[in-house]
Amino acid sequence: MNRERLLETLWKIEVKNKTAVELYQEISAACMNEILSEKQKIPARRAYYFSVEYLMGRMFFNNLLALGILDEAREIFARKGFDLNTFEDVEDAALGNGGLGRLAACYLDSAANEGYPLYGFGIRYKYGLFRQKFIHGEQVEEADDWLRTWGDPWSVRRENEKIEVGFSDMVVTAVPYDMPIYGNSVNILRLFQAEGSPEAEKISEYLYPADDTEDGKLLRIRQEYFFSAAAVGQLVRKYVKNNGKNFGHFPDFHVFQLNDTHAVFAVAEFLRLLTKEYHLTLPRAVEIAKKTFNYTNHTILPEALECWDVTLVEKILPEIAHILTRLHIFAKREWRTCGYQKEEIAEMSIVCGGKFSMANVAVYISGHVNGVAKIHTKILKERLFAAAYRHAPEKFLNVTNGVTQRRWLLLCNEELARFYDRNLGHGWRENFPMIEKIDCDDPEILEAFAKIKETKKRQLASYIEKREGVKLLENAIYIAQVKRLHEYKRQLMTALAILRIYFDLKAGRLPDFTPTVFIFGAKAAGSYKRAKEIILFLNKIAELIASDGEVNGKLQVVFVQNYDVSYAEKIVAGSDVSLQVSTAGFEASGTGNMKLMLSGAVTVGTMDGANIEIVEAAGRENNYIFGATVEEIGELCGIYDPVSFATRNPRIKEVTDTLTDGTFEDADGKLKDLAASLFEETYNRADHYYVLYDLLPLVDALLKVNGEYQNRVLFTRKQLKNATHSAFFSSDRAIKTYAEKIWGI
Ligand code: 26V
Known about the structure:
The protein is an alpha/beta fold and 745 residues long.
């Protein structure tokens, strides 16, 4: 990369009479020219990441930072009278839903930065994750036409690298769009767009189309096969062109990482190609596949573990159904020969109950299977994949997630980055664990850090005011719960805890209460009714409190609209406290917890996912752990009765009553349904996620924070301890582990 040349090109860009969009395109194009002109040695062996989600967020600032020209570019255009911050209006590339997709983006960033050849494959959705608005407190979804205004100057359409993907009823053209990922190596994220006919185009139209109907399921299967087959097809053909048909060396050049089960059709397509087109025997093809594929599990929720009806797959992909069925028989024979128990074979079976278990395919074929936090991996070994683990323990390993400090510190909290520069020199930018050297007991350092937090809070407040029209309380504690909306994440429990505090405040039981703002951000999947009801409930609580003169100077709730990567960048930097309150055993890892930690938020959380490792790193005494552990939850199973539990606890009952007693207007029974989720058996047992069980411990933890916050030195020290012990949660560390322990690149 020729930095001087690029800066010169930027200098020459004329600003006058151009729209922001034109300038955005022009500046981006100049950078892309430099990036694409990079000559590089591409190592023979590469890793390929298969994911249906990539939550890249805004690429502009990230790429300019990676190119090392962000500050100069700002300066150059400022002199020309144009503020680059205008591009904060550029839509996020939101081709993902949550942590899984953002993790993929962080890993691409870290791999490029660490110089590992990691290439991503995915789908170029026409519409990203929906845009969210609230109307009368209810979530309304709008299509996210992310390409409409600003276009996509960071990708290149590769017309001559198209590939056809066949279904029984149509042939679809997969057109690659390559997005270079710039760092110490220049890697590529290749997203396929489906073309050929209106029917074909539907395949890459929406992310996660609802799969509650047969058509919906078929579309999901098409999506998953579409990009997996396009990727595998290209790699296999290229291999044959360069190396001939001796597939014995294929794993020397390729290692595949399946990001959850969404790309498991890649396994089937690989076997199909090798057996049908290149005439290998199935055992030989399986042998090669076993050396090529690896699988990361990201959830243990049964409803999220994909199983596809054999008949549905047969309908549109008969050869794929056939090869998976053969694989099923083949694996069973192998297990029997090795003396596996009948029950074990049933548990590991590829076909079960007329469905293909995509996770079981992945576990069988993968050389390595990993979880994403210590406790999650333990659960995989002991519960979800116990039989497979017993017979092949060497296959299983943990790689705790990480997040890129370039986006989640350098970009979103420049002030903190400069604080590290001042105290450590610039070395920490290349050697992140150095931040641990900061002296958390030095009063001057503590004061400087506290000032930065104040600045970031003010910036957040003014951003929220601009976006939501809500003025946040000043001199208040900012507590954030930002993540997908899901029952297991227990935003409902936080809502009830807030009501508890509200009632206690009104009754004068909390005379020394420090003003507190709860900030929520979350999208609920379009078809997930209960998640939407929780949003509504929180918005009603926000309204109730805001309109109550007795408390609205002390307590505030704001649920921001359209929470996305760019919003997250503001919230993680400007929050004091990070709420991570999932039911123990349910959050595989969490990565928002890490992003908030990087900016020094303390965690109020359960012993779940990566929270455990976070408090191990930053000190339990510097965080606020509460609630039932995995073991306790296990013991409660079958005994816990939320109805009698609440009846025995008036402090619980008083708040749950608000769901049904008319405190809130509820003509259509949405809040009543939330009460039902707690007290009655619905699609889950009553209070399946132990919301009521952990409610009062959460209130206590929040009140403890509230009290301790008043000791500014003590609390700032806790925050700084968190910030400076966050280096382990860098995705640079995580990607190194993948590279060394799984990929061998
Ligand atoms: C996704 C969905 C989407 C539609 C509504 C229902 C539902 C339920 C579960 C899921 C989970 C999909 C997998 C996933 O995103 N897992 C997340 O992966 C992160 C990265 O490893 C991890 O930090 C989070 O704990 C985990 O939930």
